[in-house]
Amino acid sequence: MHPLPSDPSAGPAAAATQSMAEGTLRPAAPGMVSGVAAPAGGDEGQEVDVWWGAYSGRAVLPTFVAAGVLTVSAAVVAWFHPYIRYGIYGCWVVLLGVWAYRAVTFTYRLTNRRLLCDRGLRHPAAGEIAVNRITAVRVERRWWQGVLGVGRLRVEGVEGDAPLLLEGVYRPEQVAGLILHAAGRPGHGRTGAGCASAPPRH
C-alpha cells in the first residue's frame, strides 16, 4: 500500500470518501467543494484524502448469475453423480475466492496530489499518477456494466505516462468527475479530452 502522511485536519475530507465495499459517494461536508477537499488556510501543502474506492462486487454479479443458472440446470444430474456435485461446489469456491480477493486487494485512493492504485498481493503498488499530470479520464464498460452502474476508468496522463486502469469502479462517471476536479480540469465534460464513455480496450 502507499503510505500517506498523517493529517489531523483531514476530518472534513473523510466525509467525501467512498465506502470500500460499494464506493458510494457521500455528500460534501463544510469545507468541501463538489466532493473535493477545499484547501484550508495554511494547510495547502498537506496531502489529504479526496476519495477511497475498491473493486465493486457488482462487477462480478453476471458471473454469479451465470453460475447460478448452470447450477440449477445441473442440479438433477448432480444429485445422482457426486463427482459433478463436487465439481459445482469447487466452481463456487473459486468464484467466491476471486470476488473476495479483488474486493480486498483492488483498492484506489485519490488525494489532492496523487491518484494511487493497488492491485493484488504479489504486485500491490500497481501505479500512481500525480493529479497535475492527468489529462483525461475515460469510462470504459460494456452494456451490462452500465446497467449495474460499474465500469473501468482509464486515467491518462501527459505524453509518456502509461494509463492507470481502475477496474470495477462503482458509479464511474462520478468518480471520474472527482478525479478531473482534483486535477484542476472540472470544465472537461464527458466527451473529448475530459470524461468519455467507450467499450473496454485491452
Summarize the structure.
The chain contains six helices and ten strands. It has helices at residues 11-14, 61-73, 75-80, 82-105, 143-148, 172-182; strands at 32-33, 36-37, 49-54, 107-111, 114-118, 125-130, 134-140, 150-157, 164-170, 195-198.
Structure commentary:
The chain has 202 residues and is α+β, with helices and mostly antiparallel strands. The chain has one domain (49-197): Roll (PH-domain like), CATH 2.30.29.30. Helices cover 32% and strands 26% of the residues. It has helices at 11-14, 61-73, 75-80, 82-105, 143-148, 172-182; strands spanning 32-33, 36-37, 49-54, 107-111, 114-118, 125-130, 134-140, 150-157, 164-170, 195-198. The strands form three sheets. The protein has a four-stranded antiparallel β-sheet. A hairpin with a 2-residue loop joins strand 1 (32-33) and strand 2 (36-37). Helix 2 (61-73) packs antiparallel against helix 4 (82-105).
Topology, please?
Layout: H1 11-14, E1 32-33, E2 36-37, E3 49-54, H2 61-73, H3 75-80, H4 82-105, E4 107-111, E5 114-118, E6 125-130, E7 134-140, H5 143-148, E8 150-157, E9 164-170, H6 172-182, E10 195-198
Parallel strand pairs: 7-10
Antiparallel strand pairs: 1-2, 3-4, 4-5, 5-6, 7-8, 8-9
